[in-house]
Amino acid sequence: MVLFLLPLLSHSADNDPLQDFCVGNLAASPSLNGFPCKSASSVTSDDFFFDGLSKEGNTNNTFGAGVTPTNVLAFLGLNTLGISMNRVDFAPGGVNPPHSHPRSTESRIVIKGNLLVGFVAIDNKFYSKVLTRGQMIVIPRGLVHFQQNVGKGKALAFTAFNSQLPGAVVLPKTIFAANPSIPEEVLVITQFWG
């Protein structure tokens, strides 16, 4: 029986990297776990540097929130490393609408302001907390969550993901901007769920 379980145990975590790095080559098609590697002879120090998180995001939009993603598509040095980050800026009252990350757990730390952060578990239990500067929360992979600036001034948070490309399913966009549209009668019927 033990010999039968050994192969299962050996596949229960991510594989150890077989190389120091694999700076992504966006010109090539993505492979199973990222992009093919840029030629090692063409890798430079700049491939491991990204300054996009130093710039305030645009909050002049419907939600009053600006997300600066730093995934493998923006920062090729992250390719195959299994990590990424976002900077999220909030205007007063701004909201990062309900969304989920299908490929990643999220951890969030508040740098400035007061953020109401909440998520809903599969059993529909709602967990929430108002976070202030220096406080952190973890949101399990795939669960629907949101953030709202409940302070008087701007707010800023950084998120970290255990995926180079966590993906984002933004519920309002997914439901109301689907192409082609979700049939209206389906949306009307489902509003009475539960």
Walk me through the structure.
By secondary structure, this protein is mainly beta. It has one domain (19-166): Sandwich (Jelly Rolls). Helices cover 11% and strands 29% of the residues. It is built from three helices and ten strands; from the N terminus they run αββββββββββαα. The strands form two sheets. It has a five-stranded antiparallel sheet, with no helix packed on it. The longest helix has 9 residues, at 2-10. It is globular. The model is unreliable at 9-13 (pLDDT under 50). Keywords: Apoplast, Disulfide bond, Glycoprotein, Manganese, Metal-binding, Secreted, Signal. This is Germin-like protein. InterPro entries: Cupin_1, Germin, RmlC-like_jellyroll, RmlC_Cupin_sf.
Q: Structural class per helix/strand content?
A: mainly beta
> If you average the pLDDT, what whole number results?
89
Name of the top-level CATH class: Mainly Beta
The whole-angstrom Rg is 20 Å
Number of helices: 3
When the domains are counted, the total is: 1
Number of strands: 10
CATH superfamily: Jelly Rolls
H/E element string?
HEEEEEEEEEEHH
Disulfide bonds: 22-37
GO molecular function, one term: manganese ion binding
Binding site for oxalate: 86, 96, 101, 106
Keywords: Apoplast, Disulfide bond, Glycoprotein, Manganese, Metal-binding, Secreted, Signal
The gist of it:
Oxalate binds at residues 86, 96, 101, 106. By secondary structure, the chain is mostly beta strands.
SSE blueprint and pairings:
Elements: H1 2-10, E1 65-70, E2 84-90, E3 95-100, E4 106-112, E5 115-120, E6 126-131, E7 136-139, E8 144-149, E9 155-161, E10 169-170, H2 171-176, H3 184-190
Antiparallel strand pairs: 1-2, 2-9, 3-8, 3-10, 4-7, 4-9, 5-6, 5-8
Keywords: Apoplast, Disulfide bond, Glycoprotein, Manganese, Metal-binding, Secreted, Signal
InterPro entries: Cupin_1 (IPR006045), Germin (IPR001929), RmlC-like_jellyroll (IPR014710), RmlC_Cupin_sf (IPR011051)
Domain Cupin type-1: 51-188
